[in-house]
């Protein structure tokens, strides 16, 4: 499927985003047929999504530096939590891309309305911030991957040889 021993594969979050885009576009179109506009994307939401991507990247840098040998030590629990955070960020980013893209697609037939154009700019910002979160999550997940055989060599460097 989308999650195996190599971690979360790109096809799962992208497929999830595409599925949600279609569903939300249909629901938005139906919502608008009743004479209502979809809600606007709050600027604070866009900013927080972008900041969350930066936080995930920052945590991922610690794991990356450790695996490259430029950081002295790293708690295995912190590394595991960083991996989980990265995968959650990728899936959350995919869900938000689907939400905002679906609302934008549902709104496109009314592009000529000034209110729709304002909403579409907000959706574009939401899509950009959410794509940032998705991509950062996938990249950081890759940084958390321990190369095959490297785990044993790293352990032997960290643990002293037993005295005979």
UniProtKB/TrEMBL annotation:
This is Integral membrane protein. Pfam families: DUF3180. The keyword Transmembrane helix applies. The chain crosses the membrane at residues 12-31, 37-59, 80-101, 121-144. It comes from Nostocoides jenkinsii Ben 74. InterPro entries: DUF3180. Keywords: Membrane, Transmembrane, Transmembrane helix.
